[in-house]
Amino acid sequence: MCGIVGVLGNHEAAPLLVEALKRLEYRGYDSAGIATVNGGKLDRRRAVGKLVNLSDLLVHQPLAGKSGIGHTRWATHGAATVTNAHPHKAGPVAVVHNGIIENFRALRAELAEAGYAQESQTDTETVALLAQRFMDEGLSPIHAARDTIARLEGAFALCFLFAGEDDLMIAARKGSPLAIGHGTGEMFVGSDAIALAPMTDRITYLEEGDWAVLTRKGAEIFDSLDRRANRAETRIQIEATRVEKAGYKHFMAKEIAEQPVVIADALKHYTTAEGTLRLPEGVDFTGVDRITMVACGTASYACHVAKYWFEQIAGLPAEIDVASEFRYREPPLSPASWALFVSQSGETADTLAALRYANGKVARVVSVVNVPTSSIARESDLALPILAGVEIGVASTKAFTCQLTVLALLALKAAHDRGRIDDVALAAHLDALRNLPGLMNHALSLSTPIAAIADDLAKAQDILFLGRGAMYPLALEGALKLKEISYIHAEGYASGELKHGPIALIDAAVPVIVMAPRDGLFDKTVSNMQEVMARHGKVLLISDAHGVAEAGAGAWKTLTLPDMPPVFAPILYAIPAQLLAYHTAIAKGTDVDQPRNLAKSVTVE
Ligand code: M6R
């Protein structure tokens, strides 16, 4: 989603703004722009497409000034055009914005009546015009911004810059995250600390409803009732903000390869060498009657896998829902239940809204997040970091397997607390998980044969993924990954559902990827696979050595993964699914790390 930066600096702002925007590229965008104040004059440059287009424009039409704001826009209201790109400017005001102003139509009509006409189709220009109107009515920039913010409904992060004010920026947060960076005689604003890392490691996160007046001397922060607010300054670990490909061609490739290490780290963090769990105090499932898991996209598939674990290992009823449905469904929640929210970014608007719905209705709101400073983490009773490290590729990979790992540990804790497994069984399960990093390294070594298969997959128009039991959600995840970055239509199905409809799609041109470790359901999955092959479907069977030996004959291709206890196999089988998507995208020449239309962190509904 959109990225925001702001600089009140001691050096030229344009290069700093562009560099910071580069660090926000991972969020996804389709146009970019910056504005500066130079000698009191407010000016801007905007370009459609990648940041390189903005950089080129700045070569020919430089922007001077040590104060500036910048933006990468992920189009919501209006197409990706220069006119719709931010910063939006109205008279002496320039604004960048992330989020959606829900009452912008009413405001726009009101402003039009007063003679303030809008050029663009965006909700953001309305904000700039409103501030301009307040200034025309005699308000100072600070009061104009304050009164503008008070009129806005919806979710937003905003940063204002004003003509004639070289030492002033106003920042505001409601629903979308915003960080303030402290320098020496300099101040910064960014959508996240990653954007600001080259400039400062001293960060203050604005809280919901906060707005801040920034000058080079510092920031005065006000809460939603305009009272002075003290917000802590924290030092972020620059290591945690590193966004380098480390020799890999793409962030996604690096993140896939990192999985054995980050999963080993997560296991080390949450377990002891003696074979016990070391989860935070408060993770106690005694008396818990149900767990409701809510998330979006890949994170929701992690919940879907975990449902099998909570029910099968712990005997705990588990429900899952995508956040965008959950929040409006008004589901009744048991006061003895837990609501669990899973999110890489911790800022997904729908997941956050679902969390707020559950708050107060359940015994405990728990989150499993990658960004421990995120809104979802902060608003939970208990937040468990997945310790995946920064994930830049829009297609989630290492966050997915780390989410699965932490969810598996939670399910084991639930099973132990509920007396479903004893210490010995728990230690055996933890042993199986501890073997995962080694097995994942083996799976990663299949990259070359997977690339060869992907060359063929790249020619397909439709691809199906099949799985049974906990491999079913993995089929959904495999299909999502493939369509996200290769733009090939792909669907995941529960193997048993095939004959209830999707089998009509099967012919020699439709590859069907069957993910089936040799578990208790294997024979049933193989029967479904035979049904595909009987209709000339091209089957890629991904299984272990026994599975491939037993059922591989007649398949178009096979991939052999190492043996592992089937219960946690989805974590291992995620790797070939990710590699298939990655190599198919490479074969098709698509933009792997920033696929079209997608944003890393979806902070609007
Ligand atoms: O940050 P979150 O985990 O809350 O994001 C949820 C989804 O938007 C995300 O998983 C999305 O589906 C990814 N692009 C999947 O690769």
From TrEMBL:
Residues 2-217 form the Glutamine amidotransferase type-2 domain. CDD domains: GFAT, SIS_GlmS_GlmD_1, SIS_GlmS_GlmD_2. Gene3D superfamilies: Glucose-6-phosphate isomerase like protein, domain 1, Glutamine Phosphoribosylpyrophosphate, subunit 1, domain 1. Residues 281-420, 453-595 form the SIS domain. Transmembrane segments: none annotated. GO terms for biological process: amino sugar biosynthetic process; carbohydrate metabolic process; fructose 6-phosphate metabolic process; protein N-linked glycosylation; UDP-N-acetylglucosamine metabolic process. Keywords: Aminotransferase, Cytoplasm, Glutamine amidotransferase, Repeat, Transferase. GO terms for cellular component: cytosol. Its EC number is 2.6.1.16. The active site is at C2 (nucleophile), K600 (for fru-6p isomerization activity). It catalyses: D-fructose 6-phosphate + L-glutamine = D-glucosamine 6-phosphate + L-glutamate. It is found in: Cytoplasm. GO terms for molecular function: carbohydrate derivative binding; glutamine-fructose-6-phosphate transaminase (isomerizing) activity. Pfam families: GATase_6 (PF13522), SIS (PF01380). SUPFAM superfamilies: N-terminal nucleophile aminohydrolases (Ntn hydrolases), SIS domain. PANTHER family: GLUCOSAMINE--FRUCTOSE-6-PHOSPHATE AMINOTRANSFERASE, ISOMERIZING, GLUTAMINE--FRUCTOSE-6-PHOSPHATE TRANSAMINASE (ISOMERIZING). Catalyzes the first step in hexosamine metabolism, converting fructose-6P into glucosamine-6P using glutamine as a nitrogen source. Homodimer. HAMAP family: GlmS (MF_00164). This is Glutamine--fructose-6-phosphate aminotransferase [isomerizing]. It comes from Paragemmobacter straminiformis.
